[in-house]
C-alpha cells in the first residue's frame, strides 16, 4: 500500500494557472510561486466582490482520538465528489504548522487519494506565510524590548509585559525563559515566553482581517504590555504597525493549489482550534464563496472547539453562515469513546459503539442548536462491520440527520459521491438559520459560562483569582463586548482529556484570561492547556529525510 506522500508524489499535477483558468481566473490575477502554487491578487479579490455567494459547507468532527478521524481528508474528498456531481466547488483549508508535522502528525494535506498537492511544499515552507507571521510577531517583541532599553518613554512596567515571542515548532524548553542576560547593553533582564506561531495573535489577526487597512488597524490594537499606571501599551504606541504590515503584505493574500483530481483549493492561515480559533482565513473563505457554487471548509479538532469558534467568532465577524454542517466520526473512534483499548479497536463491538456514540450525540445536538442542518459521515475502514454501520446510520437518522459513508481515502472523489448527494439534498431541502451561543452585550463570565454549559455540558465554571481579576480589568478597559475564544484540550468535552464519551455536570476551571484586542476576542484558558507544544518521545522528524532529491517519511 502506498503512503500518502508516495501517492502525492506520483500525481500528475497541472500548472496552477490551468486550474485557475477553469474557474475564470486569468494568469494576470495570480501571483505565481513556481508552477503549482499561486496567490490570488488583491485586484482579483476586488473584482469578484459583487459576485453572488455560493453555498458554504462546514466539516467538523467528534472529539479526536488516537484512532484518527480525518477532517481534512473528508473535506477534500467531499469537494472532489461535489465537482464530480456537477457542482462548481472549491475547498478552503488551513495551512499546516511545522511543529505538528515534525512532531506527532507528519503531513497534514489530507490522506490517501483525497489530498491537496504539492503536499511537501504545503507541509513545509509553502509560500512563506508562517515565516512572515513569525517575523512580524518577533519584530514587535524586539521593538518592545528595544524601547525599554532606549529609555522607556512609554513607562512600560517590565513585570506586566504580555507579548510573547514565537516559533513555528514544538519546543517545550522555550515556554519559560529569561532574556537580557549579559551586559547592560544586552537589554533588561526579565522572564519571557515563546508560543507556537499558530497560537499567536498575529495568526488570528491575519485570518480575521478583511483587507490591508483592516489588518493594520488590528495590528495597531495589539496590547503588548501595561505601563506603571496599569494602562495598556499597544503596537501602535511602539510605532511598529507599518513594518509589521510590510512583512505581512503578501501573507494576507490567499493561496491556491489543487486537489489530486485537479480541483482548486484555497489554503490560507492556520490557527490551532484548542488554543486559537481554528479556522482558515476569512479572506480565503469569502473569496471561495464568490468563485464557486459550493465551498467546503473545515474547523479544527472537535465541534466543541473548532465549530463553536467558527460560528461564534468567524461567522459573527465575517457575516457568513454555513448552509450545512458535516460531522465526521469513525467506528473506531466511537468504540474508543466506549472504553475499548486502542489495540482492540479492529474487533466488532456493538456494545462499545452504543456506549461511545454519546460523544457524537452531544456534538449533533450542539450543531442543531446552532440552527444548521447536519449530515453525519463515517470515514470508512476495512475493519468496520455492516452491523456497526447499520446501528450508527439508524441512530443518526433518528436524530434528524442525513447519514453517509465516506470512502474518499481509498477512492478519492468517487468514494464521496454518497456523501455529496446527502449534502446537496440537505442544502436544497433544509433551511439554515444560524443561532449563536451568546450575545456580545453579555458580561464576559456569562459568555464563558454559556459556552461551558451549552457546548461542553459543564455544570459549573470556576475561576482562578488571576482570571477573575483580569476579567474585571478587561471589561473596565472597554473590551467586554468581544466574543470569547476558549482554550481547552481537544480530547474531551470537559477540561479533563481523560473524560471520554459524554461527561456531564463537571466543573470547568478558567486559570488564565487575556484580551487579544487586535484579533477582537478574549481568550479564556482552561486546565493545563499549553500554547507551546512539545515533541513526543518519538517525533515524526526522525522518519523524514531526503533521498534522490525527494522528501520521504512525511506521513
Name the descriptors:
alpha/beta; 555 residues; four-stranded mixed beta sheet; 19 helices; globular; twelve-stranded mixed beta sheet; single chain
Structure description:
The protein has 555 residues and is of the alpha/beta class. Strands 1, 2, 3, 4, 5, 6, 14, 15, 16, 17, 18 and 19 form a twelve-stranded mixed beta sheet that branches. Strands 20-22-23-21 form a four-stranded mixed beta sheet. A three-stranded antiparallel beta sheet has the order 7-12-13, covered by helices on one side. Helix 4 packs across helix 17 (417-429). It is globular. The mean pLDDT is 95.
**Tally of contiguous helical segments:** 19
Distance between the termini: 13 Å
Tell me the number of strands.
25
Average predicted confidence as pLDDT? 95
Share of residues in helices: 25-40%
**Structural class determined from secondary elements:** alpha/beta
Q: Radius of gyration from the CA trace?
A: 23 Å
Low-confidence stretches: none
